[in-house]
Amino acid sequence: MAIIINLDVMMAKRKIGAMELANRIGITPANLSILKNNKAKAIRFSTLEAICKELRCQPGDILEYVESEGDNEQDGETES
To answer: What Gene3D superfamilies has UniProt attached to this entry (predicted)?
Structure first.
């Protein structure tokens, strides 16, 4: 399973730069970069809420679930 963060897409649609968004939502540009580049292991709901409020979007506009190969395996068993 993989969760893809499409923050850069929403930022482009709203025509807002990383520095400006980071300042508006109160996180460091470095942390915003980690989110934009899909390097984040987690995101606080308060941060997600601030991003959605500032970009006028829904969490589903930013987060996307992509099924990885092998995700259909159950209990560690593989298909034969």
So the answer is: lambda repressor-like DNA-binding domains
The dihedral built from the CA positions of residue 31, 32, 37 and 43, taken in this order, carries a sign that is positive
- Beta carbons within 10 angstroms of residue 61's beta carbon: 16
With a threshold of 0.70, does the pTM exceed it?
Answer: yes
Distance, CA of 20 to CA of 23 (rounded, Å): 5
Domains of the chain: 2-66 (1.10.260.40)
